C-alpha cells in the first residue's frame, strides 16, 4: 500500500530545513560552550583520549589511533577535520596552554602542516586532566552518541575557565566567535575576586586581567579594553616585539623576536620583501630568518644612514607586524543559547557551572560514603555477635538461604548481609576489627563534612577558590604579551616619510615636481647650467622653492586664493621630467595662476604671512588663519581691480620688510607699520610705483647679531649682484624707495631679490628649464647703483624667471 503523501509549501520547508541546519552548526560544530570552552569536536577528542587511558602520565599513542577512536565512537565526520582540530590543541603557538602533548612534527608558525597522523603521537597534557577530573562522579550530563551505542559527556567538569585561558574562534551560520587567550594566573585571580565580590564591575576585573595574553607574545594596546570586555566585542591592537640594533657605525638592523598572534612568519617576510622589490619602501638591504629551536628571530638589515625608526613605522602600518585582534566573545550558554558575553558574564557562567559540578560531586561522594558506612555498620554489628552469625551461616542450605536468615534473625539489610557473607576470616582478628571501627569513625566525619557542604552554598564557593589557588600554583606562568596602556600610535603618512630637503618647482603650464637638491651639481658662475626640465617650447618655470618633506606648503594664486598640501604629497620626479599637473592636487580654476609658494614646518616660529601685490600693496595676516584650508581653497587677500597677488613671506611680526621693483628701486621699512588684518582685507600701500614699474621681490629682514646681511638681486638676462644691507636705509612705508640696481637692456629687469645671510649657494632657473647652481660667494659684493655680474649664459629668447638660495 503506497505511503500517504502530503503537499507542503516549498518555501516553508526550505526555511525550516535551513533553520535546522543553522542550529546544528551553531550548537554542534562552530561555537564553544561557555562552561568548558570547548567545541564538540575538541570535547570528543579529549574525552576519547581520557577514556582509552591516554592521560598525561601514560605512554603516547599514534594520533591515528586517537582519530579512529573519535570517528568510530563520537564524531561521524571526516578524519582530516578531527586531526586538524587535534593538531591545534597541541600547538604552543596556537594555544596559550596546549591541551595535548604531542610528539613529532605538529606544524610551525611558518604555516607548515603537521605530519600525517600515522607519524605523530599524542597524549593528554597535564592541564587537560583538570578539565576531565571527576567526570566519573556523575558531575556532568551525558547524551547518546550518534548511533546510540554509547554515552558521551555534554560538557566537561573543567576545573579552569578554559574559554578565557585558551580562547577560541569559529564561524557559524550568521554569527562568529573570536575570543583571545589569557594568562591563567590572571584569570584565576579574577575569578576568585568575583567569587568574593559578586557585584564587582568590569573596571575592577580589568585591573586583574589587563588584556589578552597571546602564546606568541608581542605587545598589545589596551586603552579601550574596559569597554571591550564590558560589551564582549571590540578590538585589540597587537604589535610585534622589535628592537633596533646598531650593526656598525651608521648601520642598523631591525630585530623581530615576537610576532602578533595568528600571523604566519613566512608570509610576513614575503610581504616585507615584496614591499622592497616594489620600491614602496627604501632603505632595506636584506631580510634574514634566523629562527631556531631557541625562538623566533627575523633580521631586517638596513642600508647605511637609513632611518630605522621610520622604516619600522612603515612596516607597522603596511604589514602584519601590527594587526588588530577583533574580539566577539560569543559562546553557548547552557549548551544551547548563543550569547555575546562580557568578561564578567563568562567568569560568572563558569562559576555557576563549577558550583553545579561540585554539588553533584559532593552528592556522589556522600552517597558512596553512606553506602560504605552502611556496610561497615553491618560488619561491626556482625563482629559483636560473630559466633551466632557463624552458626546461622553454617546451618543454612546455601548462600541465598544464609542471606535470608541473617536478615531475618539479626535485622541486617540485604546489602549488609551480602557484605557479611563476603567477609574474610582475617577480619575476625582484633586489629582488623579496629580498622573497621576506625574507618567507620572517619566516614562519619566525612559524611558530616559533605552534608555541611551541601547545606551551605558558600562552602562550595570556598572549594572553588581553593581549587583555583592550587591550579594557579601548579600551572601559572609569567605573562608573555606586554601590555601598553597608552593609546596605540596611529602612524600617519608623515611618520613614514623621511624628513629630507627637497626642491619644488612649478612651470607656467602648471606642472609641479619635487626633487633632491643633490640633483644639481655646483658650477662656476657664468656657466650654462643643467637641463632642469623636459618642457614644451611654450612652457617655462615660474616658481622654485626649497622645503623639507614634512613641511606644509601653501600655494597662493594671482586671484588672491590659497591652497595647502604637504611637501611629500608632491610627486617626486627626475631632473629632466616635466612633473605632474598641479590640477591633480589642487582645485584650481583655469583662469588662476600660482604666483607664490611658501613652506613652513608644523612647529613654526613664524606668526604672520606678509603678502605683496604686483601694484605695491602689502598685507599682514596671522598664520593661524590658514590652519584649516578647505580642498577648494580659501581667500587670502581681497585684490584691487587688475592687481595680482605676487609674493608671500613668513614673518615674526616685528621684523623689517624690503621690496624691490622691476626697474631697480628698493624700499625698506619696519613690519610694524603694517597692521595685522583678516584674510579678506586688501592691505595698504607698500611702495609708490611709477608707470610700467612693478614689484619684483619681497623679503623679510630678520635681525641677526654678528652677521652681515646682503640683498641679492637677480635680473632677467642672467645678471646678479649682492649689496650690503647697510646701504638700504630704513624708510617709511609707501615711499618711492631708493635705487638698488642699474637696470639696462643688457641686464634686463629685476625678477627676484632675497636677503642673504647663511645661504651658500644659489639655484637660478630659466624660462626654458635651464638650472644653474653656483656659490653665492662667486657673486661679488657691489654698490646699489651697479649692474652686477653675469651668473648664467642664456640662449636667445630665454630669460631667468626665478631663484632660491640653499
Q: Uncertain spans, ≥5 residues at pLDDT below 50?
A: 528-533
> What is the level-2 CATH architecture name of the largest domain?
6 Propeller
What is the alpha-carbon Rg in Å? 44 Å
Strand coverage percent: 25-35%
User: What structural category characterises the helix and strand content?
Assistant: alpha+beta
Task: Supply the number of structural domains.
Answer: 4
What quaternary form is this? Answer: single chain
CATH superfamily of the largest domain: DNA gyrase/topoisomerase IV, subunit A, C-terminal
The CATH topology assignment of the largest domain is Neuraminidase
Features:
Gyrase A, domain 2, alpha+beta, 806 residues, Topoisomerase II, domain 5, 41 strands, rod-shaped, Topoisomerase, domain 3, four-stranded mixed β-sheet, 4 domains, 25% strand
Walk me through what this model shows.
The chain is rod-shaped. It has four domains: 10-184, Topoisomerase II, domain 5; 241-320, Gyrase A, domain 2 (2-Layer Sandwich), CATH 3.30.1360; 356-474, Topoisomerase, domain 3, CATH 1.10.268; 499-805, Neuraminidase, CATH 2.120.10.90. The termini are far apart. The protein has 806 residues and is of the alpha+beta class. Helices cover 29% and strands 25% of the residues. Residues 528-533 have low confidence and may be disordered. The chain has 17 helices and 41 strands. The longest helix has 42 residues, at 343-384. A hairpin with a 3-residue loop joins strand 34 (710-715) and strand 35. The strands form twelve sheets. Strands 14-9-8-17 form a four-stranded mixed β-sheet.
Amino acid at each position: 500500500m503506497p505511503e500517504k503523501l502530503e503537499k507542503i509549501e516549498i518555501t516553508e520547508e526550505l526555511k525550516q530545513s535551513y533553520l535546522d541546519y543553522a542550529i546544528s552548526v551553531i550548537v554542534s560544530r562552530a561555537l564553544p560552550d561557555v562552561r568548558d570552552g570547548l567545541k564538540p569536536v575538541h570535547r570528543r577528542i579529549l574525552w576519547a583520549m581520557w577514556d582509552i587511558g591516554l592521560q598525561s602520565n601514560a605512554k603516547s599513542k599514534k594520533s591515528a589511533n586517537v582519530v579512529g577512536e573519535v570517528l568510530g565512537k563520537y564524531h561521524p565526520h571526516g578524519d582530516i577535520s578531527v586531526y586538524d582540530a587535534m593538531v591545534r590543541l597541541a600547538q604552543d603557538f596556537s594555544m596559550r596552554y596546549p591541551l595535548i602533548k604531542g610528539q613529532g612534527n605538529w606544524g610551525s608558525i611558518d604555516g607548515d602542516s603537521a605530519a600525517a597522523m600515522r607519524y605523530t603521537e599524542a597524549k593528554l597534557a597535564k592541564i587537560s586532566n583538570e578539565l576531565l577530573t571527576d567526570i566519573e562522579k556523575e558531575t556532568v550530563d551525558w547524551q547518546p552518541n550518534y548511533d546510540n551505542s554509547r554515552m558521551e559527556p555534554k560538557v566537561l567538569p573543567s576545573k579552569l575557565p578554559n574559554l578565557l585561558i585558551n580562547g577560541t574562534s569559529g564561524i557559524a551560520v550568521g554569527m562568529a566567535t573570536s575570543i583571545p587567550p589569557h594568562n591563567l594566573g590572571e584569570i584565576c585571580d579574577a575569578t576568585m575576586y568575583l567569587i568574593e565580590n559578586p557585584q564587582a564591575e568590569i573596571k575592577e576585573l580589568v585591573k586583574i586581567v589587563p588584556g589578552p595574553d597571546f602564546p606568541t607574545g608581542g605587545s598589545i594596546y589596551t586603552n579601550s579594553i574596559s569597554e571591550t570586555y564590558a560589551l564582549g566585542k571590540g578590538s585589540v591592537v597587537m604589535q610585534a616585539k622589535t628592537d633596533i640594533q646598531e650593526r656598525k657605525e651608521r648601520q642598523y638592523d631591525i630585530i623581530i623576536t615576537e610576532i602578533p598572534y595568528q600571523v604566519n612568519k613566512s608570509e610576513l617576510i614575503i610581504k616585507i620583501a615584496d614591499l622592497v622589490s616594489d620600491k614602496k619602501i627604501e632603505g632595506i638591504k636584506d631580510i634574514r630568518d634566523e629562527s631556531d629551536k631557541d625562538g623566533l628571530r627575523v633580521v631586517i638589515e638596513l642600508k647605511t644612514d637609513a632611518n630605522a625608526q621610520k622604516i619600522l613605522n612603515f612596516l607597522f602600518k603596511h604589514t602584519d607586524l601590527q594587526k588588530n585582534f577583533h574580539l566577539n566573545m560569543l559562546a553557548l550558554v547552557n549548551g544551547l543559547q548563543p550569547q555575546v558575553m562580557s568578561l564578567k558574564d563568562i567568569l560568572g557562567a563558569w562559576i555557576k557551572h563549577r558550583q553545579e559540578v561540585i554539588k553533584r560531586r559532593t552528592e556522589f561522594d556522600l552517597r558512596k560514603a553512606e553506602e560504605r558506612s552502611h556496610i561497615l555498620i553491618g560488619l561491626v554489628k556482625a563482629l559483636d555477635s560473630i559466633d551466632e552469625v557463624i552458626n546461622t551461616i553454617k546451618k543454612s542450605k546455601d548462600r541465598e538461604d544464609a542471606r535470608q536468615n541473617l536478615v531475618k534473625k539479626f535485622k541486617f539489610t540485604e546489602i549488609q548481609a551480602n557484605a557479611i557473607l563476603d567477609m574474610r576470616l582475617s577480619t575476625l582478628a582484633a586489629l582488623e576489627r579496629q580498622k573497621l571501627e576506625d574507618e567507620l569513625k572517619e566516614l562519619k566525619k566525612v559524611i558530616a563534612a559533605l552534608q555541611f557542604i551541601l547545606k551551605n552554598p558558600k562552602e562550595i564557593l570556598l572549594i572553588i577558590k581553593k581549587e583555583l589557588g592550587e591550579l594557579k600554583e601548579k600551572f601559572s606562568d609569567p605573562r608573555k604579551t606586554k601590555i601598553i596602556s597608552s593609546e596605540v600610535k596611529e602612524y600617519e603618512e608623515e611618520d613614514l616619510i623621511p624628513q629630507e630637503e627637497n626642491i619644488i618647482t612649478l612651470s607656467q603650464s602648471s606642472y609641479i615636481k619635487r626633487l633632491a637638491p643633490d640633483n644639481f651639481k655646483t658650477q662656476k658662475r657664468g656657466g650654462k647650467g643643467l637641463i632642469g626640465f623636459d618642457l614644451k617650447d611654450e612652457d617655462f618655470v615660474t616658481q622654485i622653492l626649497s622645503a623639507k618633506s614634512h613641511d606644509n606648503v601653501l600655494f597662493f594664486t594671482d586671484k588672491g586664493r590659497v591652497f595647502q598640501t604637504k611637501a611629500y604629497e608632491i610627486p617626486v620626479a627626475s631632473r629632466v621630467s616635466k612633473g605632474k599637473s598641479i590640477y591633480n592636487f589642487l582645485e584650481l580654476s583655469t583662469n588662476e595662476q600660482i604666483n607664490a609658494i611658501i613652506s613652513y614646518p608644523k612647529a613654526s616660529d613664524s606668526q604672520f604671512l606678509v603678502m605683496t601685490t604686483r601694484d605695491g600693496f602689502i598685507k599682514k595676516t596671522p598664520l593661524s588663519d590658514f590652519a584649516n584650508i578647505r580642498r577648494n581653497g580659501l581667500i587670502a587677500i581681497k585684490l584691487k581691480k587688475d592687481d595680482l597677488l605676487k609674493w608671500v613671506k613668513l614673518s615674526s611680526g616685528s621684523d623689517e620688510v624690503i621690496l624691490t621693483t622691476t626697474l631697480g628701486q628698493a624700499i625698506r621699512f619696519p613690519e610694524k607699520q603694517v597692521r595685522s588684518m583678516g584674510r579678506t582685507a586688501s592691505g595698504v600701500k607698500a611702495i609708490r610705483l611709477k608707470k610700467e614699474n612693478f614689484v619684483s621681490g619681497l623679503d623679510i629682514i630678520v635681525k641677526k647679531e654678528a652677521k652681515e646681511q646682503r640683498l641679492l638681486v637677480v635680473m632677467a638676462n642672467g645678471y646678479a649682484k649682492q649689496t650690503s644691507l647697510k646701504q638700504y636705509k630704513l624708510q617709511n612705508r609707501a615711499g618711492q624707495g631708493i635705487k638698488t640696481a642699474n637696470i639696462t637692456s643688457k641686464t634686463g629687469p629685476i625678477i627676484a631679490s632675497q636677503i642673504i645671510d647663511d645661504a651658500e649657494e644659489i639655484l637660478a632657473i630659466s624660462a626654458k628649464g635651464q638650472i644653474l647652481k653656483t656659490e653665492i660667494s662667486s657673486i661679488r659684493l657691489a654698490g646699489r647703483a651697479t649692474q652686477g655680474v653675469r651668473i648664467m649664459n642664456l640662449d636667445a629668447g630665454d630669460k631667468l624667471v626665478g631663484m632660491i638660495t640653499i
